[in-house]
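hey so i finally got around to running the thing on that chain from the lab meeting. sorry it took forever, my laptop kept dying and i had to restart like 3 times. anyway pasting the input first so we r on the same page abt which one it is
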Amino acid sequence: MTSNLSPDSYTARRLEHATPSHLHLTSRRTFIGPIPDGWLKSHRKSWYRSYLPVGGRSGSSSHKPSFTAAAAAPSVDGEDGEEAVETVLEPRPVSEREGLAVPASTGGAPRLSSQSADPSSTTSLLHSRRGGSVAAEPEQSIQKRTTTARVRFDDVSRLQIRARASRLAARGLGRNSKMKDGELMKMDKMLVRIDITQQSLGEEFDERLSQGVEAKTMDKWREFMIVCRKQSEDDTVGVLQLYKTRVIAANMEEQDKMKKRPKAEIILSPHRARVNLYSALDKTLCIWTRENSRTTIYYLRASSGAVAVEWFTFLTSLLGWRRPETLQISVPDLSVTLRIDDPFSTPEAAQIMSDAAAGDDTALMKAASHEAGVAKAIIARCVDMLRFSPEWADVMKTWSEGNVMGLAWKRYDRLEWVHGAVEQKMYGTSAMQRTHDLQLRPKDHYPLKTKCRGETEPIQEPSPVEGFLIRLTSQQGHDRRLGKMLFKRLYFTTQDHFLLFLRPSDAKPPPPPKMQPKANGNIPSSDEIAKSVPLKLDIDPYPLQDDHVSWLGHNAVPPKELTQLDEAASTEAQRNTDMMLAADGFIDLCDIAKVRKMRKGATPADQNIDNGDAVDFDIQIDPTDSLTDDGSTTEVDEDRTFELLMKNDLVIRLQAYNKSAAQLWMSRLYALVTYWSARAKADMDLYKSVRAQNLAVLNIDERTEATVGSFAYKWEVQQSYASSTLYNMCGITSCRTIHLSGLLFRKPRRHTTFTRCHVILASGHLLIYQDTLRKRSGKKLVHIHHERIAAIDLQGCYIYSGLLTENDLLYQNRTFDSNTPGHNALPRVYLEDGWTSTDEDAMTTFVIWHSKSKAWFKSSHFVDDVKASQKSAAKDAKSGLEGKFETKLKRVSQLGATGRSVVFKARSRAERDHWVLGIGNEIEKLSGREAEVRVVQAGKS
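ok and heres what got predicted. didnt touch it at all, straight out
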């Protein structure tokens, strides 16, 4: 129920893909206090102010209070020591989303409903049989979408939408009388590799067929600005240009005046050029042209899969491909296939696209809004077709309870959800019907329940926990130095099955219960804040009431408070993300055998340790906090110390604030260890069951499965099974802080060797942690936690996989198995979970490419927009910077330069697919920002 929320708000976007119960269970956390006095003395002001409203940060006492008085931290007794005090999250300003503003419906994704609708206003149902197909007549009207204020398009946005509208207005022919020769049709930044071969490739070429082609790389991966211009000479329909500059001429007349010419040009002609989707996984495109006896192959890797597929549809349309007038959508849960006639057309669409092609801003906005609503309209038509079918009416009534429906492209055992940029540009995905099946599915999320061994009833995922603790051991499990016990003050927080730790200087504890600010507007003292924080603080941005969020129910709160609560939920999510990115290491909860009280004599240092309180919990934190130990001690308070016994027999000792806090930590960690150990086993069992089911259905063995999964044609694997639980929505919609995690083999540079590491994908970053600790001699050392060794910011990165990675592998597995000649990889088994693999190296490899050269670029925002330039100049004058900066420059990647490749190998083809899609999705989230390009119009420089 989000009618009172802005459709672009954080909560509305999350409810579009999940139920209120899911939001509640994935957002709740527990903080075990208190906050040390020493930490508050160093970080009190910045931490307190971060939770004040915008108007309350100037020091004025007129702002609305952010906190209210609360009782001091209670002393808790009892077996588990739990006494809950609920916190009210305060809002924090959220920056506006960048990019093109597109209206979105407030209702979110269509949900199945058991209520009847008027059948006359829906698609008529012609025929329905189990396992058969259902045909539909074209829909005559679509529900009107909400409108937004007029928006101002930049040159690139206007160009992209106008070109797309021109193609749609011409019914997919790519020709429109309003566009002249030499005008820009489409433009994007891409990664390009150029190969040549003496072989003739014919009409088809993709990753499967490339195995029989001997080619030589002429130009390794480099970043270019790819520009497509209209050109109609003889049989030519366009020209594709590769630029090393971000300053692009709007037409050919202006290009003649430019200093930098295109590095290469590809003439787009049905008789001279071919285009195909080279990789159905990472969506790399390939264009090949034949000249004399040499074939040139251009591999184009776009910034995201959505952009790549849109280019694929655009180029194939230019070269004569016609979009099918029908769309087949299968419903695997019902074993039925639906057929929708002319799914992208509506009575008003033709006029909208025609006006948009002429360049009218209002029409451009309507065109973008219309396209963004196509996916939801298709879902609604499918649901209505099933609901009004006598055969499926009862099934749909049962299926309607709590399900949020969505579209997904399926290929073998892989699901790619229609979400985000793909959903906004649904027209551009139509060419994916060549390689994928479109399916209607419930939007499944990562499970929140699992069964433990020997139990009949599933247990629910416990609430994550966080707080300040003192660690009394080092990474190698050593607990002493010269007879004394080491100690280090840290902040611990759990995310999934990781017990992450970070230095106190990087910690961001949750806000305390509301407390009145002082009359003069000053920030309360450390003692006052410390007294207001209870020992146990439950954080719940989305409390439930009758299966809906309490502050979004029928008795909804006032609009102003509603906005504050929404911003508070967004702030809480960002707080968890910030601490995830700042973590120095983690302890895997699945590696913990027992959570117990401190046992005297469990470590050799105990013979020199007395019972005492020498380690002060509240000592002031050093602002230059480092990873080194804080010191050593000969006294340990046994009552407030507990132990984590690892499966490798090492012991981690942790000291809490008092005995009650230690009991809270023990009970919460025990529940988390129990759940996540069972959850990890269930996840691996799901991987194995999906593979086993496909092996049986397709009648293949495990060695063949990798080849089928990578290279099989669509019709060969149409009967395969894909799990929506395995490819769930949580990572895509950021329900959890961690998108994906697991074991990978990493090679930071081409000429180094692979090392095994733990990798966490979160918020546009790839966090890399060491797997094994070794001596200089290479001997393995047992250890208690995994320290972070590297991090990759995915902003501006590209990912490619499969056979294109062979040049990066260099040293491949060249073993010979006489039982399977022609295969180089030997069978492998991973003892930690029993997963097996016989996949070839190239089938398990993916590469992340990023630029290593930078350049300065003058944005069109300050060149073409006079108003923006005047505002910037006025701001500089006000701040005393007038005359110091003549232009506004930004740092960008240098086009045409070689970059750096980080090579990763997964344990199998199935796991590689998850990583490629997950990383590609994170890159896609980061790529929807202002384009780093300037289009030069006539009369402008």
